Model the fold of this input.
Amino acid sequence: MVIPIGIVIGFGCALAGYVLHGGNPVVLWQPTEMLTIFGLAIGATISSNNSRTIKLMMSEIFKKYPAVLENHHLVEFLTDYLRMMLGGSLNLVQLEGLMEQELEEFVKTEHLAVHAVDNMAQGLPAFGIVAAVMGVVQTMGSIGLPPAELGKLIGAALVGTFLGILFSYAVVAPMAAAMAQRGELEIKSLFAVKAILLASLNGFTPPQACEFGRKIMFPDQRPTFKEFDEKAKEVKGK
Done:
């Protein structure tokens, strides 16, 4: 909900400032300019990324994390390494090295979608300029029209630049930043699981091993020792 609220506030303030200066909000509605800008942006994104990256980008935008079981990366990571630990086929050094390699690849994969959206944000202002130039070219072909008509055409052309910059910095760039933050939280959870499993394999008791994982989490996401202890007792009582 944070992203939509931020977009509404940003768009509302921008539109209110424009109207308070005497601007006509109807003039800002230019479907052809938007078609040009977003058509270029979507086309550039598709041409610069493979289908797997596009799928990741869309899943990053819409996926939710209501429970640990719905985080399939975390569940797969945990169950795979628990199975290896129980099988006893790998020693501590081998298991840690394999974890490091998998986490490194996971980080790269998570960043693909973020980079795709961020690249779109960086390209939108330029695409807005392209739309504006196309509008100016059209206006130059109608130079014989009355000044009032020419003014409308020039204004419509300039809306392209406005829309490109607005959607870049007020919509797409914040979306990329939010995706990056969610990705970092998921990555951090995997590192926490790694720390717990390795501590357990080193002979630490379950509470001690979980303390290793607790310390890995971000400060604003990390439960206090008391909160963690109470939750652990609650789980044991079930």
